[in-house]
Amino acid sequence: MDSPQLRHSISLHPHPFQLHSPRPSPSTSRMALSVREATSTGVDNVPCRTRTDVLDEENSPPRYANRNDPFKLASRLKSPEEIDRIKANTARKRDGCSPALMETRGVSSSKKLQGFYRDQNRNIERLLTPVEEHVRAAKELNSQNHLKYRIAVYGSFVANLVLAVVQLYGAISSGSLSLFTTMADAIFDPMSNLTLLLCHKAVSRVDPRRFPAGKARIETAGNICFCFLMTSVSFILVAFSVRELVTGGGSETNTFHLPSVVAVAFAFCVKLALFLYCWALRHQFSQVRILWEDHRNDLFINGFGILTSVGGSKLRWWIDPMGAIILSVLISVLWLRTAYSEFQLLVGVTANTQAQQLITYISMTHSPLITAIDTVRAYTSGPRLLVEVDIVMDPAESLMATHDVAEELQIKLESLPDVERAYVHVDYETTHKPEHFLKKEL
């Protein structure tokens, strides 16, 4: 998924589907009229994009040849000067609105309108970029940031191993339930990192005779099992904390243990450094994004755990078990939320709007022999997408031409970084019923 649906992909390629917000533009909305049952409007690929001479590249939008832009999307591009000149109509009187309020609303509307056209420019540029350019950019970005990726993944793994030992010492030496909760989360962090690494290696080593569909879904299944394991540990800690609250403390406050607090504070500082490092790479590699989210959650958990542990030692004893209950419930909610999103990926939730637009536009502009697009489906199969496209061609075309067009389109769609498999079906008309039914009759 930003949409969370594709964020757990184990591919190291950046995702062209999630670069921009899925706000529809006037040009893409108009393009939807030419697609009968496409799930959304088309978006990307022209076989070859060529720019004509531009008088001033910085001040004028790029222009594209007609043969490479059949829907005239480039005509909707606006230069930065045109966008800056856009002002909302603030002259219209609003009943009950003061001049200052009218001006404030006008400025806000102006910024929203300017933001819309900037997003439209970026979207159109992305749509008119050839598939080959998407693939080349993904490989180039992967090679450039491969070292940073390895530092983020393996550095987080080593750091989590060390922090697990440190927080284990802090929890045992202090006896604080809050620190036991942070310790449990810290122990499972390196296991989560190890799961990601092993799944990536397993996916890259596939026996096609035994696993014809690949092993990409193994990560999704592993994440679901891990989520429920972590949730079970949190429930156990909740039970211990509730028992502590029921039995009551022996004194008004617990014993304060400075080394354990220092140990958890050290873990907090290390997590903060990892969080800041992964923040810059979170949109480029999905694995790094998962690690970034984990470090973000750990920052809150460790910080809150320190506060409740010290509060139980300095203020009232019940603050410590109460803090452990709150932390355990929070950890359970976070992991169950992750499990729900992983279930959606495994079941097969529909792809986001930008993915559907991109696939539809690629199919529409693939070949002049394609007269229409009947149906476009894109849905998850684990971390990646399965694509089904029904194209319409002239019934008088030869079998050879029909086969070549469909096969080339399939190869082109499967070259996209987040597409696992693509299936192209050729029709000669659009009046028939859908080929597949959602509900099977037994």
From TrEMBL:
Residues annotated as domain Cation efflux protein cytoplasmic: 368-427
One GO location term (cellular component): membrane
Region (Disordered): 1-69
Domain Cation efflux protein transmembrane: 156-347
Subcellular location: Membrane
Skewed-composition ranges (Polar residues): 26-43
Entry keywords, A to Z: Membrane, Transmembrane, Transmembrane helix, Transport
InterPro entries named among the record's database cross-references: Cation_efflux (IPR002524), Cation_efflux_CTD (IPR027470), Cation_efflux_CTD_sf (IPR036837), Cation_efflux_TM (IPR058533), Cation_efflux_TMD_sf (IPR027469), CDF_Transporter (IPR050291)
Main location: membrane
Topological type in the membrane: Multi-pass membrane protein
One function term, GO molecular function aspect: monoatomic cation transmembrane transporter activity
BP-aspect Gene Ontology terms: inorganic ion homeostasis; intracellular monoatomic cation homeostasis
NCBIfam families per record: CDF
Record-given protein name: Uncharacterized protein
Native species: Elaphomyces granulatus
